[in-house]
UniProtKB/TrEMBL annotation:
Keywords: Repeat, TPR repeat. InterPro entries: TPR-like_helical_dom_sf, TPR_rpt, Ycf3. It comes from the Bacteria. This is Tetratricopeptide repeat protein. The keyword Repeat applies. It comes from Boseongicola aestuarii.
Amino acid sequence: MRQLLILPFLAVPAFADCPPPPDISDAATALLERAQAAPNEMAAQGISGQLWELWATAPNAQAQALLDRGMSARASYNFIDALDAFDRLVDYCPDYAEGYNQRAFVNFLRQDFASALVDLDLALERSPRHVAAISGKALTLMGLGRNDEAQEVLREAVALNPWISERSLLIEPPGKEL
């Protein structure tokens, strides 16, 4: 008989395998191309929302419940429960980038920039064009005082989506226009 790991509002088989994350690469590429072609920030906002929908689609119902629980806890500034949910999510679905990205966001909010950076790198290994993780990495590097590196990473994010709000943090290099 298979053991159950009981989570609040969720029962997950203890040794169940998480299915592979959905392949969103083609859809994400199409949305990023639309964002790059958007005439203004207002037009790009809906596209960014569609990207978030892709990233926040977990591999199965159990993973989605953990993601949703963690995001809800984070939104309530309950970082202990949020970290617990995201820890469980990355343990259960180690190939799902958004689990790492969300855990990084909680650690960023806690100003644990070193932990956030580790998770952002893990998210980006799994989803290299995840604009939110890239811009989050730039902000985290700023938090660590690594501003030159942060500017390089932020430029990568802006190249993928020129309308992200973090673009306002770009510093024009001497002698160059942005």
